[in-house]
Every structure is written in structure tokens, then in C-alpha cells.
Amino acid sequence: MINAPFDVALQIGEGKETEIAFLFWQDGFIVFPGCKNHRYDFGIYKNHIDLIEIKDEDNYSDSGNICIEVYQGKSVRKPSGIEVSESTVSVHTLNDKVVFYKTQKMRLWLRRYRVKKCKGGHKGIYTLRDFEKADNGNGGYIIPIKHVTNCYWFCHCEKEKMPSHKMFSKVFL
After folding, report:
1. H/E element, 70
2. Helix (H) or strand (E) holding 11
3. What kind and span of H or E run contains 130?
4. Which of 52, 61, 66 shows the shortest CA–CA distance to 162?
5. Range of the domain at 115
6. How many CB atoms lie within 10 A of CB 3?
7. 162 in any annotated domain
8. 123 has a pLDDT exceeding 70
């Protein structure tokens, strides 16, 4: 998301939510509004229900990474992002492409591979960090897309192809 005043960033984010919801609607899904507590953005139904969370990363689409937010706050860190999301699927927009994954699977994957203090030093790959351009002290992990492309619960594809992916066509664990 662009580093913009909150009201502008909110408008951009809501526009992305509408754009992705429309793609599902065009593909025959029933689309229903999300709850306004920021736990998910909207829901879809065809063969089963999925709750969708949208993250706008268009400005970073050439980086080869996605940002996974896990906390918010400059002095006191409160859980946020993936740690509090009730979504079943998270979608990161990358201009004409998207990355999407099963939210709970990513949570578990991050817990396995994040850097942790342990006897004899540190263990893990990904280090928790503050997001430099965030205005409210958000932070989390920056994950190279290529590190998760082989996970069955993760997909990187053209935006228009997302609704027809097998993740949405049947119960996908």
C-alpha cells in the first residue's frame, strides 16, 4: 500500500476489495460483505464458504516479496494482521497478479520458520521487523514469494485466473 494519509489508503484498499470481489462474482460466486471489525474483508460462496482478506501490495509488485503483518503499535505491540484475521484465504494484490494462500496454513508456516531465540543462539529464517513505511507502527515478516511457491496452500497467478483456482472450487484443506 502506498504511504498515504489514512483516509486515502482506506479508499485505495476498499477499491482493491471491490475489484477482487467483482472477479469472484463474475465467476459465479455469491459474494457477501465482510464484518467491519477488520477480521476479514468479504466472503464468497460457491461449493463452500471462504472469508477473504485483501492486502494491497501493488507498489511492491516487482520486489518478489509479500509482507505478512503480525503486529501494530510503536510503543506497545498489539497482535494484528494474520495473527487476528478470521479469513480463510488471504489475497495480496500485485498489480495484474495476485498471491493467495490459506491463512491458517501461513500462520503455522510462519511459526515454524520465524527466527526464535533458543539454546545456543537463534533458529529460523524470517526475522520480525518494523515496516518502514507504515504510519501506525505495523510490523511483521517479509517473505520471498519463491520460498512458498511449492506449498500446496499457496498460489501466485494472474489476477483474473484466481477465482477458477482449485482452492476455491472444492473444499481445500
Report:
1. strand 65-72
2. helix 6-26
3. strand 129-130
4. 52
5. 6-169
6. 11
7. yes
8. no
